[in-house]
Design goal:
four-stranded antiparallel beta sheet; six-stranded mixed beta sheet; single chain; about 10% strand; Rossmann fold; alpha/beta
Length: about 650
Amino acid sequence: MAALNLKQLTRHSAGNLAELIALVVLACLPLFLGHSAYAMGLLTLLAIYAIALIGLDATVGYLGQVNLAHAGMIGIGAYAGGLMVTHGFGLVPALLVAGLIGLLLGTLLAFPALRLEGPQFALATLSFGSLAVLCLNELESITQGAQGLSVNRPAFHGGLAMTATTFFWLTLGLLGLVWFASRQLLEGRWGYAIAALRNSPIATDALGIGALKHKVLAFAFGSALAGFAGGLYAFNLGFLQPQAFGYDLSVTLLLGNVLGGRKSVWGALVGAVLVVLLPNLLSNKPVFLAIAGVGALLALVQLIQAMRQREVRFQSLAPVGAMLLLLGIALVTSNLEEWRKGLFALMLFAVVVGLPEGLMGSFSHQLVKLLQLASTPLPSPSVLDQVLPAQGDQGSAVVDVRDVRLHFGGVKAVDGVSLALAKGEALALIGPNGSGKSSLINVISGLYKPTSGQIWLGKHLISGKGLLAANRLGISRTFQNLQIFADLTAIENVAIAMKGAYRMPWPLVAAGLASAEDRQAMSDALALLTLVGLQDKAGVIAADLTYSDQRFMEIARALAAKPHVLILDEPAAGMSKPDVEKLKRVISTIKSRGISIILIEHHLDVVAELADRVIVLDGGKPIAEGTAAEVRANERVVEAYLGSSAQHLAEISSS
């Protein structure tokens, strides 16, 4: 049999192999530990916390929101599962109810909480966690309150007793299933959409992805796993008290997620080890001091490296200060338990600032370089005619703007604009800075709600209905200030916006049945990247692309929605002359397929070459309309531009 060549492994296949090995090794541990009940309890707790941290990562890692409700969700799930068994139900219905309660509560909490950001969201989730503990403590007739609730581990079907070892193997098997399902969801197109929200919620709505929907799904998914993990927790410990699910557990879980590594199921496993061991380390001062000393030393090494490169920043200094303070507290205090919250807070601060990708994030990057693991091969591009079919019926009105006004207090950004855009027409909006061009297209695309007036897309009234509704009816756009999904590759940026590519419901996606849809979406996305000349950079992280390439990628992403109307907001801004020539060819190709275009552009040679009609705005009002040559000859246009800009207008007729 041929030896395994690591260089032939892709990152994805290597990850699958490593996960399988890890689960097999964990499953074999009882054979070496003598089936000790204490050891089996710790190993089972590790698997339970790994499930909980995979759920927490959906909110913290992918959405980028600090979620302090997770411990409360685990507690509610634990009591729900425990009470189900106490009333005579079996293991399976108890776990299902625990997970479903987590799903329901997570959905109900997500709708109001996810409209908040940053500290406000953290406080909202902290309030829920505190309320959950209070309710579990006060409902003594149901939960036994502070006295605690005893829970017997349910037997197998048929009355066969479940030992600590068999329960560990069961929990480990469930972890494997959760691990697989979460990879299908969070490391596929569902995870791409959630990660996109972290970079630009506006762009996700403008592309038809739906910001609020995916936020709620991510939070509800994580809460369901928390409730499910809580049910397992109840059967592992056999005794529940409300205070076990309070603030300390919330912070410990958050620390486990950040230290293990966000957006990584491996990070969840490493973080679970931390969550299980850290409370025990506080009772063993010498071991805790040794770990704190190693942490301080690593932070000092990072600082010295930064000093040698003359790049000493807050990210280098802060972890050293935090770890030295932690080490000092640990040296002078006799009881570390009294300083639990402060020590956890210092560790969390040091990790967030000094190791933002966590242990597994940093380790995986180094491992990929060491083993020279290849990226997953890209599929062949689809035929462009299938991805972006030509649209007929040239000349019929597709957008009708009727006396639209947009006022910001006393400022009239758009003041009574009416225009009609024909199918297949390229309409340019020009004018001096502050003339209302961007405000007008923001109203047309649904980003702003007009103060008055109407906007029709075909037979649909779309004014004031938002970006998402406008996109679903056929309007797509780019932005003056780039709104890329910086953490995703170029092809992932485009693939998640492919209209009609993803029809399979998320439970089937979690079961791994969406691979054909994913491959088709990637093929279609590659066809659009080929259109804009980025086929060789499809696998490059968007943040690493040049500015011009990011502009072209944003155009390809806007086309993924298969729009009837494409709005381009200063696409040539910041481009070199060769890139501007390339942009002209790309827009000409798009126009040739019958897509109507609204173009804002200061490169007037681009306007002259591509626009069928030009509207000049000044002070929020149209002051001229016609061909490029006609507006150049208009005296009001020259007066509006003044000086050197008026000279640029002359380029319209000469280009």
